[in-house]
Protein 1
Amino acid sequence: MIIVMKPSATKEQIAMVENKLMELGFKTHPIYGEVKTVIGAIGDKRNLNTHYITTLPGVEALVPIMKPYKLTSRELKQDPTIVEVGDVKLGGEEIVVIAGPCAIENKDSFIKTAISVKNAGAKILRGGAYKPRTSPYSFQGLAADGLKIMAEARNVTGLKIVTEVVDTRDVEIVAETVDIIQIGARNMQNFRLLQEAGLSGKPVLLKRGLSATIEEWLMAAEYIMNEGNHNIILCERGIRTFETATRNTLDISSIPIIKELSHLPVIADPSHASGTWKYVPALSRGAIAAGADGLIIEVHPDPNSALCDGEQSLKPSTFAALMEELKPIAAAVKRML
Amino acid sequence: MIIVMKPSATKEQIAMVENKLMELGFKTHPIYGEVKTVIGAIGDKRNLNTHYITTLPGVEALVPIMKPYKLTSRELKQDPTIVEVGDVKLGGEEIVVIAGPCAIENKDSFIKTAISVKNAGAKILRGGAYKPRTSPYSFQGLAADGLKIMAEARNVTGLKIVTEVVDTRDVEIVAETVDIIQIGARNMQNFRLLQEAGLSGKPVLLKRGLSATIEEWLMAAEYIMNEGNHNIILCERGIRTFETATRNTLDISSIPIIKELSHLPVIADPSHASGTWKYVPALSRGAIAAGADGLIIEVHPDPNSALCDGEQSLKPSTFAALMEELKPIAAAVKRML
Amino acid sequence: MIIVMKPSATKEQIAMVENKLMELGFKTHPIYGEVKTVIGAIGDKRNLNTHYITTLPGVEALVPIMKPYKLTSRELKQDPTIVEVGDVKLGGEEIVVIAGPCAIENKDSFIKTAISVKNAGAKILRGGAYKPRTSPYSFQGLAADGLKIMAEARNVTGLKIVTEVVDTRDVEIVAETVDIIQIGARNMQNFRLLQEAGLSGKPVLLKRGLSATIEEWLMAAEYIMNEGNHNIILCERGIRTFETATRNTLDISSIPIIKELSHLPVIADPSHASGTWKYVPALSRGAIAAGADGLIIEVHPDPNSALCDGEQSLKPSTFAALMEELKPIAAAVKRML
Amino acid sequence: MIIVMKPSATKEQIAMVENKLMELGFKTHPIYGEVKTVIGAIGDKRNLNTHYITTLPGVEALVPIMKPYKLTSRELKQDPTIVEVGDVKLGGEEIVVIAGPCAIENKDSFIKTAISVKNAGAKILRGGAYKPRTSPYSFQGLAADGLKIMAEARNVTGLKIVTEVVDTRDVEIVAETVDIIQIGARNMQNFRLLQEAGLSGKPVLLKRGLSATIEEWLMAAEYIMNEGNHNIILCERGIRTFETATRNTLDISSIPIIKELSHLPVIADPSHASGTWKYVPALSRGAIAAGADGLIIEVHPDPNSALCDGEQSLKPSTFAALMEELKPIAAAVKRML
């Protein structure tokens, strides 16, 4: 790290900062500029309280040189991580599409949707059993009953299944049933939930928080990896900005950035990003062309009567048509779908 | 609510929307404009899936007329709520200041801080036992041991105590010990935690989420109130914007807006909003002048050696000086401190 | 428009609002709900000061039903506008790529770049003669001398040329020389400049402002069209958000939204959006796949020595390789490049 | 500045960066860490194209150590600047309030307002002669006729006058008439307009741009000062965020930050920040308590019939009452009003 001293810092203050750094085990290298002095400090900063330094007299700023995440970093592991969910591989040559309704409403409807998305080419089935809803008056999900319906849909279709968990107390039961545990955007910094997901041993689909920087998102993945679970799929699902024409703003740049900074696979969620089914095809095509390893798309047999997020759900027929549109895009970026 | 039809909507589509609304128990009032038709619909929209309507053919948009929150609304309860924590009253004539360190580090230091903030005029003591930290490598709090230290500080000083809870599994033990349960910004939409806090029977200090709108913040309070707990203190702690000169941007306008929309008391957290102790006095003065019912301020006996958020902590002497500065401001807005 | 009355509005207040609306030439249709009354008002709102209504006693809100823009709207003109710049057509089947350096630095370098981007398949040459720079100490452009170099590059290559204008006093000289006038992001709400560009008779490339909503962007285009100039090319170039990993956040959703709301062509600027050349290929592919009508890309023969924005410039060889990558993407969305 | 090399940078690459820096006149100080090497470079970076360095092979990042602004910086000039407009002093002990309507509509109404705001204690009169309006169909101002009305109001009341200029071609005529030239938020990065305002010799009221960082705002002031004009009054008027409950979000933290970074006076505009007259008193009190040197407030004799921004205008009587409320706040921060 680099410590920048104020223009008004005295020699004594500079010496004190150097001494403190040496006491903490850092090697120091001061550079005396015309206006300001900066001190290079070599050592492991991870256990340091950086404000101990920044609040010393005469210090203007501390500039970190190393990234705060380690395990998720491509500096540590240069080969891309391929998350294997049975025979489905995320992060490899194949583009993997996850599809299904926002919430599991009843068995018949869910299995019908499962069959249709499988026929269209989806490899993983999504469905919400525990729903985080903005209003306490909205449908909150079928909970354990929903998990049973998911398992049955897996038996019928052979699709892998993923569902969101919103409470540390539910991680165990969810992990017993599903193939992938989803951490939603609102819980991206629910650190206890991240730890439990890490301990569950199941692959984790980690959505980016509404206002999370890419660095914070990777730090959330670091929490999971720190528990020994390295099977993480990152999911860009739109960030909150001033623009209200879409529910959120899909940050498509995050796809090449994640590919540069991390070895983890990254997919996109055009349904939650836009909040409107009619923009889902354009965003899906854009995300694949920009390098995403997959997509998670809401599909509902009858969006008009969905209990949750019907506005952003595709009909099965529209989803099937989109899957056809995506094939030449995947081929253009030398991937398969 | 108002349903806006597209310019291209046919008579049949308009009739179908009217019929569906009537089936759902709404009374309808169409208005035929030169370009667009709008349909007024009178009835209870709370259990309606609005996308059922918005996805009908010919519908352009649905405009809600009623606010989505009820219990927190000043439309429902015009008198301000005064949250009583023993003999401390939040939301009344008195400005209540909560102070203490980010994290509880050890008994001696914590009790020393407690005594100093009490002497300066604080009424409630804050301290973190369970810390939500961005990095898994940072200090995570003393947990149950921290709660014991808090209780001892209360015994010594007579101050009320507040601490943050980050996991549904901890609500019971926290509620047994503290006077106020805090829900932090990162958990503002951890709906299960909100429900558990609601069921705990303890007053809840509900911080605004980093990217939460005022409406979403009130909906989070609605979750708590929906469990029968009406003792909620809202806390503005800064929102995430493009500006990086402060850690977050204190949205001071939220104070008069909350006062207009809701009957709940609202306080400000200048320490987390700015992330830098040197801006805390200006923001504290500003918040009180704008109508806040109180403040929550980080104070640490030795910020340089704090295990958490030292940069934003005031020294006890600076805190005491600030309390003096705030008195004439409080008097200027006809409040007491 | 719809006027929403407060729950506390009296009959007299409702009657007064109706009377005022009728005086202003609106037909009124009140709807009496259980809690609130709303009044539908039919008429031309464009010349109305809406706050005249919103500040009447008892009024809670005014909800516009019609969009504020007319000329740019697809409601008015359903066929897409194809902007013809000589034989280059923007908005048709062909994807048009604009390329060139941020600033024109000298004749030799500029003409060399022009030849290389033409050979790679670009149809229009960009180059800055008047540069809006954040710092007064940065290179401000060659002004009229830059325009002469551009004209010469056009003679040599046959490429069309586009440059930014930043001052109403320069519109005339710029319009005499170039084929397309560019209005930059910082001037998107410089309304006088928009009017002058409208009067110039030249096609206008209108960049989206850093913090402009899509509606404000279309209103800026409306200013130009209101002067009788209908040849406008919209350009998404990234918006300002909290994320700092890229200079701006490319709002890829704006592409399908503009296609829905307006008949005007829309292109993307991946260079300014990301601020880093290495993300330009991914964003270029994503924008074309999402439906953009073209791209504007910074290319510099020697980015290391560029006087402006070298970090975001591609080398000619990288640009040529990108053009090859884009061809199958264009084909996948049934366009040509 | 500090150049951070990639972990993979070779010795040759490090040597090349050092050589290039030395060629450019910098003294270099490499520091070899365990993972990364950083190079300290001492010299004047203002005329350097930093991307020349950042794009050299092996370079990861460049960290500036010096601030990009000079003339506006408190590092250069420690005493606060007091802008004198005749006998009115901005930036001194006195809190200066500027008041008046958004737009000048006619002589009688304007002079009536001028008299009322003077009686309430305002020292400077605002009024728009050239209005930047989002819609081309809105009232655009009386232009030169408006200036004449302003001058007459000054004669009648003795108030100083300030108006916004939106076109370089109007700076001369505006500077001849008014006491202070205003640069609006939408033109904060209209650099030519900044230069003309700098050359005009008149004090300049520089509003912060909707999405301008504090650093960019100071750089805009630097443009004006670079033309030799040091009489600048900064004005915080709200930034664009995701929150829609107010038109913009008043960034009250910017007040103490400007006081720390710059010697220039700073005032607040609660009318444009909130967009709603009812929040103006709370924000006015908050801004003064936080350390603002003054306020600019919209006042209109009949907001209901205002041709522009009536929603955010106070009635003269409300303004007069607010001025009384502000006096004890000013006294509490040891200022006068």
Protein 2
Amino acid sequence: MPYAIGVDLGGTHTKAALVSDDGAMLKTVKGDTPADSGPAAVLARIAELVERVMEALPEGETVGGIGVGAPGPVSRDRATVLRPPNLPGWKDVRLPDALADHLAGSVRQRMAQDAVILAENDANVAALGSAFYGAGEPYPSFVMVTLGTGVGGAIIHENRLFRGASGAAGEIGHMTIDYEGPYARSGVAGALEAYLGHKFLTRHARYQLLTRPTCLHEMTEADLADLDPVTLHRAAMGGDPAALEFFAWAGHKLGVALGAIVNLLDIRTFVIGGGVSAAGDVLLDPVRNAIPRYVMPGMRSGITVLRETRGNAVAVQGAARLVFEHAEDRA
Amino acid sequence: MPYAIGVDLGGTHTKAALVSDDGAMLKTVKGDTPADSGPAAVLARIAELVERVMEALPEGETVGGIGVGAPGPVSRDRATVLRPPNLPGWKDVRLPDALADHLAGSVRQRMAQDAVILAENDANVAALGSAFYGAGEPYPSFVMVTLGTGVGGAIIHENRLFRGASGAAGEIGHMTIDYEGPYARSGVAGALEAYLGHKFLTRHARYQLLTRPTCLHEMTEADLADLDPVTLHRAAMGGDPAALEFFAWAGHKLGVALGAIVNLLDIRTFVIGGGVSAAGDVLLDPVRNAIPRYVMPGMRSGITVLRETRGNAVAVQGAARLVFEHAEDRA
């Protein structure tokens, strides 16, 4: 049974798991990411987590490698973490060398002779995990959208990541749906993130709900200033018409972008993850309603919008999958 | 030297060529498409054109097959022409059987034993031709956009067509750039075609230029009612500020859509063909200016927008390429 270690490197927390190639996680650990202390401290933390999950490796077995899902862009050869936005001081860190230097001798002894260390953008890794071990598993091709602080995404085509020319494909949050629309942080007018990114979403909600009768006035303080997606969702689940209408507005925006993607790629399955997706059908039904209106007539059938509910798990599983895929390609 | 016959089946004309796998066209012929007489008459015309180009086949050689670029959607197995919008009476025509029935005995004798008949959507075929024998040749991955009556497109990824789940990928004209924008024929609000499709383009031009001082009032009759892209282009080349401004408006709209594509696919090369693209840099410079404004900061470098000037040739070459590719895959 092949084994690999998957690492989900985040700006605040890092998770690692020992994974077998059927996706089973033999041991999972989590630690803080000492982001402010620079790359060496972060790499030491990863090495420590790797050492801990390695304890679960069955006697006599070896590990095929370590896959790391990293925030921000990664080089096309999966070696270099370029400039992660949430990891100060990182600039073109070559992970196979940099991480290997921190691995304990006991860990190195249990790595296979041809073991690899591979990095990949975290949204891509999450999609790979979903494709092999999550909600995307039944679908050879789908587009994943992650609704979090930003809006991320990835394309799975025939069970492989579609990576594009430099490995940066899937930046769905920067696609415009209105060329004169509101500006996202990227400076792109009408970018999807300018509607559905966490901060933008709550700001739009506040503007739209401030002068309307809604239970949200009682659920929040100071004129909805502390509104967040969880509170909005709770109000919608309680049947609050204004909250429901707001999710319909937000879902419509996501549906517009996904409709454009159907026309371009003829991929009709979407897997939605990330914190905001916890709103479930209150958000996703409006998405499902909107998509066909932005798709040419011949391509409106078979459109499926699912939720990825195993967000944390698929991230480490997908990171481990990088190693298994590499071994399959080599074979 | 492998040979194939490429056929470009259009609503009004059909072209065919005998092509060798280096792209050389040994003989090219063209005929009317008897579209109103139904599928049998059209298939007979194709068979006749095939017979004529076969005359150029060198003594002792055989032809590996016939590739046909057809308007509208084609089944994923490249056998069935589904419902071409400009060919009345066609509905799910299985081309390998239907065309073979019409081929002359002299043609069949010179087809290889394992010869194939393959169909593919005409926009895809044009992109394939551009990728191997046209402006796209230096680029392993690019997106082709065809600006004609409608706005078509295709994706070439690592020298292959990216076809999507059912083979319908590349419908760029139906991507929205403004979810509350003008309606295209498809019913999609703000679809690219609602700005750049031939009829829409001239209508927008008329609205924008009607009350402005421009030489177009003298170049056209009856309040710009007979305005067309060629006249617009002539005015712009003469330095008419209003015509130049109109092309800047139109190019901006195309750039918005191409920017969205860069974010999604990380493909940064675009090849623009079709009648309207004859406007050249008057249209394409505004496209080049607009794209980066709709792309996230990290992906704005290396963006290239080219013209495919060999439109007719790459269509038949691309159709022949279907046959060569099929043979390579089988080998």
Protein 3
Amino acid sequence: MKNIELKVLNLLKGAKEASLKLGNISTADKDRAILAMASALLKNTKYILSENAKDVALARDSAKTFAESSKNKRQPAFLLDRLTLTEKRIKEMADSLKQIAALKDPVGKILRQWKRPNGLIIRKISVPIGVIGIIYESRPNVTSDCAGLSLKSGNVCVLRGGSEAINSNIAIRKVITKCLEKFGIPKTAITMIDVADRFAVEFLLKQDSLIDVVIPRGGEGLIRYVAENSLIPVIKHYKGVCHLYVDKDADIEMALDIMLNAKVQRPGVCNAIEKMLVHKDIAHKFLPKAAGILDDKGVELRGCLKTLKILKGIKKAAEKDWYKEYLDLILTIKIVKDVDEAISHINKYGSRHSDAIVTKSKLTAEKFLKEVDSACVYHNASTRFTDGYQFGMGAEIGISTDKIHARGPMALEELCTYKYIILGSGQLRT
Amino acid sequence: MKNIELKVLNLLKGAKEASLKLGNISTADKDRAILAMASALLKNTKYILSENAKDVALARDSAKTFAESSKNKRQPAFLLDRLTLTEKRIKEMADSLKQIAALKDPVGKILRQWKRPNGLIIRKISVPIGVIGIIYESRPNVTSDCAGLSLKSGNVCVLRGGSEAINSNIAIRKVITKCLEKFGIPKTAITMIDVADRFAVEFLLKQDSLIDVVIPRGGEGLIRYVAENSLIPVIKHYKGVCHLYVDKDADIEMALDIMLNAKVQRPGVCNAIEKMLVHKDIAHKFLPKAAGILDDKGVELRGCLKTLKILKGIKKAAEKDWYKEYLDLILTIKIVKDVDEAISHINKYGSRHSDAIVTKSKLTAEKFLKEVDSACVYHNASTRFTDGYQFGMGAEIGISTDKIHARGPMALEELCTYKYIILGSGQLRT
């Protein structure tokens, strides 16, 4: 066995052992530990910032090299921004932990209980999943967020951040794990795979007896890599190709507001819209207004052939446009003949993330809400609400476009599974 | 693209299309279709038996070859039994469909609904998963059972049975799919991958845009193959290494009854016990009685060193024995010093399936029920109850020892996922 394998295996065994102990930690102790983690982050702000500065300096160097050899100067700046910590951001990380401590403990709820004719009592109760692998990129705040959410839900987290944030992540982990032992929580409840070799991830993804689920967070490339290499169940979303459908019975002012909010308020996130479908009967009235507003905000428009007849001079959409997540100020528009065509289009090209209809017709809305096969389907609201906080879950560990276990925003409840406890008095099967 | 790939892709596209239509079929029509399937099985018994006879003849031939070249004459007979249909078995298949028709429709339940401060109403509702791939071996009854359960839960099933049962499976599929169209259900709602090439399975397992979840049913080899090759989420159990722990405070008569039932009543199934842990304080009293009873039933005993001192002459257990699922009349026994050692042993060597404690101590039972990390944990009852029917679910599509989505017996509810419907009045995110 290679040296790297041994190191990873040792770390994972520590994580697994901790997970069997976490069930016996009281809610109060978990909450106290999470609050202590928040304080420790604030107290050690200087140290964390100095370690983060090392990562930022390295990233700046490579961004410079990248910019010199490329025309795309925006992307590295965007990544640098994600990587950079500030006093304010560390305070936000601490605040997020405080919020997590204040949430209800999701573990130990009796989800259902029933009695069989033979007298057996079957009780279905919520329990932690066990060991959760989190593989992520850039943002160092993921380290403390995921540690807090995992601990609160009685899970051990195994964190593997990107190499670009390694110093920041190690510093955060060091600071927060110091708070665990005084509450009886093993240090390995927050385990970090700090082995600097990409093979470590490949190896980790095969350890299905030590990790129960993997949640990858980052770009589509990272997530595909994890899905393709993992023997462990993965909960994920590849991308968010979200749609707004403006029906013939739409309130046009509302449709324009929702369009603007869903496209422009924060275009680089997965719940922003990338496509707009417009009913043919309203297109002539709606599209010129929409184009005017979007143009003011610097949004590039692309369109189907019918759209091009109304919005002259915009770029023609290619087939691949319909699948694409731009994460940018680009919107592709299609005119559809009815709600059925809108639904079919979304189910074919969408990513099952978040899609919205604007209409005053209850019947049309019901059809859309029922037949669009996405995690979150909206009537008369912006898709930007697909988010654990906005849903009132108090937190978010990720978003799932899978259909297994969790769909849409995932928080504490989704970090739990269940078990059956069966109480008998000597029952035998005949 | 290869010919096989094209064929499989075509079949899967038909399945996916059907899945988008199934949501609009009423409960009444689904139930009528399932009842019609039951009648059709009965009406076509002769035809199905004649097709099954072809499979059995082929299997008998290869069993003969196998027996001549091997000492193990039992296994082929066991497989032949699983493969063989009789009038009675077809009647049971029809009965099973009738039972499924009588169950409650799991789709469309409002699981929760809440209102956000901004007025958004968030509704979480149960919906079908979509397309369910089922990869199975031998037993042809799986074909109609899975078709019925999938249809009832609004899912399309993609069935891939073993080559040894190909004629039987095709016949059953042919008979039951004839009942679909008159209820508005596309024939491809029950899709069978009848391409006679193992590569078809490998290719199918990569189609994560067309299949939502794969449930493999069969031996550990098949299940590992599926888990290792699938890009689609898999729900599975590799094996059932179930334990009975006889505590020092056990009612000895009850413990003996449960032991006998859990080991002997049907040793070839996953919820039978394979190991027995006995508290050291009760071992001298309990083990000789247990050995006498088990010996009468032809059970081979193996034991740890301490057990060997009490039960002289039995075989010493090897390390690998503790991991092994015998599916046979073999039981391996370990003497433990307390409930903690029993729990640690089960969490280390078990398969997270079903484990039981026999004790009169409520405190000890609570500890065991809480800390044993298995899908089903029993107090004073046989592990043999881990089964959808025994749990009162009315059906079973499989058992999961994973922690994601479903744990333990899986039936209609576990064939559903959820989606969020969000009702607004123009809300924007700020």
Protein 4
Amino acid sequence: MAAVTFKAVSHKGKGGLIVESQTHGFKIVMDEPENLGGTNQGMNPLEGLLVSFGSCLVIVGAAFAKAQGIDLQDLWIETEGNLDTDGFLRGIEGVRPGFQDVHFTIHIKSNSPEAKLHEFQKFMESRCPVTDTLRNGTRINANTLVIER
Amino acid sequence: MAAVTFKAVSHKGKGGLIVESQTHGFKIVMDEPENLGGTNQGMNPLEGLLVSFGSCLVIVGAAFAKAQGIDLQDLWIETEGNLDTDGFLRGIEGVRPGFQDVHFTIHIKSNSPEAKLHEFQKFMESRCPVTDTLRNGTRINANTLVIER
């Protein structure tokens, strides 16, 4: 058991739907595009989720290629998520607000044999923390609502 | 049915575990901290997930406060996720690589009655696309491995 905890804070910006977040010294602004009610000052949270997903897979690939005997000259991943806005914008019953599905395409530049690269793809998916979290969900505990007067 | 699709591309950087991602014109660099094998040039993907989660809740709160009759003077959310690195670093059987649980605390500055704010908290959770995706998981389809020679 080697427990680690990650933390972040997300704060409503001035006006509109802008959100400023911080995590261990790094900042990011998120917003919605204009067609979803924002002013397009940053990626939106669902795009943030895709970026985290693709980045996690790339990191697993980069971290483990050598140990898995894979020649890794380049690696990039296209991610795509589909959603029905009737869920979150309109609250229509039976329509989930979240992603209905997520797709990804892995591009590997490598001289390793094709079969070995397919095995490595499976390895990457099985070890990737974000893939596991998105595929299987996680327990979400809302400990507290703090009302500031 | 109002289908929308979000897309991103994540590309391995030069050396180390750095990843450069793009989504509709916005860029973000992710990396791992030094104790997880990186050079700490950006938040890591699990922190990216938390930031997306907190930002999504803030956006739902900001977007719907007025329609829900809530006085919203300020809103910020602390998020925290726990993980056992034996899963993704060592591949120990029975240890999931992803988040074991996620916690969050909502801070609302408001003059609305307490009971109404607790209702609003439930509303935010029920409508938030990232909360739903993390809590219930989603279908992940790995369509393709493209081998670039």
